[in-house]
Design a protein that fits this description.
alpha+beta, 35% strand
């Protein structure tokens, strides 16, 4: 199991948090996505044989938010 921490720009409410969380948890191989509105980041636990960080970035962008490098 791997962990990836991603900074996210543009989240302002729990609706945003839920949108990001749902998008990430729909990716095969993701076991959990813990989104922190206060820290403006998400911590993803995943199986690196089934998922990769690039997919997380794409899911966050698709949800309407920006990933901070």
């Amino acid at each position: 199991m791997q962990t990836e921490v991603i900074k996210v720009k543009g989240m302002s409410c729990m609706g945003c948090v839920n949108k990001v969380k749902a998008g990430l948890e729909n990716i095969a191989g993701v076991s959990s996505a813990n989104v922190s509105l206060e820290q403006k980041q998400v911590t993803v636990q995943y199986d690196d044989t089934k998922a990769e960080p690039k997919q997380f970035t794409e899911a966050i962008k698709k949800a309407g938010f920006e990933v901070i490098a």
